[in-house]
Design a protein that fits this description.
about 70 residues, mainly alpha, globular
Length: about 70
């Protein structure tokens, strides 16, 4: 797990620096760059490592969250 954390930190750091460069190297937005990079990296990770939301099963998600057998209302 520590290896994954180290890889994530390195990837976030690289992406934050890329954002800094994309802004033309202007200072003062380092925290914004870091938080946005962190969000981007975490959103790219496989979703299977996240816990299931309470009250929803895999079958519910695969059915699009619909219940019942009829599509008409």
């Amino acid at each position: 797990m520590a290896d994954q954390d180290d890889r994530n930190h390195d990837e976030i750091s690289r992406r934050a620096y890329e954002r800094y460069q994309e802004r033309g190297g202007s200072h003062g937005s380092d925290q914004d760059d870091w938080f946005e990079a962190e969000r981007e990296v975490r959103n790219r990770q496989p979703q299977s490592s996240q816990p299931e939301p309470a009250g929803r099963s895999r079958g519910d998600r695969e059915a699009g969250g619909r219940t019942g057998s009829s599509d008409s209302e």
